[in-house]
């Protein structure tokens, strides 16, 4: 097991385009989290899955954002009609239910021009 | 709403110094507190986790303490090395299923 994997590592897009990021959690981790981190700040919670069910969404997750985890394994985060303010590092983390530690991926850095 | 503050925001020290990073949180009803390390452009690596019932945890040159009643935690790094240069993040787990992070302390250890 190689840990939490995120793809792509870096995405450059033009304002108004749609982008999709993928996260592969550690196998058997049933909990999956998405966070957003802007420069000089700590990560902020976006949304959380337990298996395939999306249990919580932050107010940061506007209508342009959607996340899925269709089979309870990998997850995707889509941003529609990107804005310059969406530029950030998007981090994925996973955790085994009952365990304390969340394991983070390397992140996807989004740059919206 | 839980808020986490880290002081200082940045720190530069010569190699070999012992140093203390501070973290404070506003709601003492936490399950645990974690310290993470983040290298530039990279993800987070968990360094230490302190359960709410614990006072401190140690790993090598790192020691983290927790005073839940006062809403404070410290990360002590002994005999700092240039390889310790990174951003250190404090995060609390309030059982809301997600972590609440501070803004981090950016550490530079000069050789």
Task: Provide key terms for this protein.
heterodimer, A: about 110 residues, mainly beta, seven-stranded mixed sheet, four-stranded antiparallel sheet, 11 strands, about 0% helix, globular, B: about 110 residues, six-stranded mixed sheet, five-stranded antiparallel sheet
Compose a concise summary of this entry.
The N and C termini of chain A lie far apart (36 Å).
Task: Please trace the helix and strand order of chain A, writing H or E for each element.
Answer: EEEEEEEEEEE
* Helix/strand order of chain B, N-terminal first: EEEEEEEEEEE
Largest sheet of chain B, if any? 6 strands, mixed
Can you tell me the overall shape of chain B? globular
Give the N-terminus to C-terminus distance of chain B in angstroms: 41 Å
SSE topology:
The complex is a heterodimer of chains A (113) and B (111).
Chain A lengths: L4 E3 L2 E4 L5 E6 L6 E7 L6 E7 L2 E5 L7 E4 L6 E5 L8 E8 L7 E2 L3 E5 L1
Chain B lengths: L3 E4 L2 E5 L4 E7 L6 E7 L5 E8 L4 E4 L2 E6 L4 E6 L8 E8 L5 E3 L3 E6 L1
Parallel strand pairs in B: 2-11
Antiparallel strand pairs in B: 1-3, 3-8, 4-5, 4-9, 6-7, 7-8, 9-10, 9-11
């Amino acid at each position: 097991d190689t840990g939490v994997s995120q793809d792509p590592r870096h995405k450059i897009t033009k304002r108004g385009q749609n982008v999709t990021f993928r996260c592969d959690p550690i196998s058997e981790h049933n909990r999956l989290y998405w966070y957003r981190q802007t420069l000089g700040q700590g990560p902020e919670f976006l949304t959380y899955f337990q298996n395939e069910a999306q249990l919580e969404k932050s107010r940061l997750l506007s209508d342009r954002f959607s996340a899925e985890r269709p089979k309870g394994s990998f997850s995707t985060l889509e941003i529609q009609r990107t804005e310059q303010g969406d530029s950030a590092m998007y981090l994925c983390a996973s955790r085994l239910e009952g365990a304390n530690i969340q394991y983070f991926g390397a992140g996807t850095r989004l740059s919206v021009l | 709403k839980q808020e986490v503050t880290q002081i200082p925001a940045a720190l530069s020290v010569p190699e070999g110094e012992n140093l203390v990073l501070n973290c404070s949180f506003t709601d003492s009803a936490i399950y645990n507190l974690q310290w993470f390390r983040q290298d530039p452009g990279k993800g987070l690596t968990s360094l230490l986790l302190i359960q709410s019932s614990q006072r401190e945890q140690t790993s090598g040159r790192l020691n983290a303490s927790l005073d839940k009643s006062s809403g404070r935690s410290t990360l002590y790094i002994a005999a700092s090395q240039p390889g310790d240069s990174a951003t250190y993040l404090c995060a609390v787990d309030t059982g809301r299923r997600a972590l609440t992070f501070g803004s981090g302390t950016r550490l530079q250890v000069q050789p």
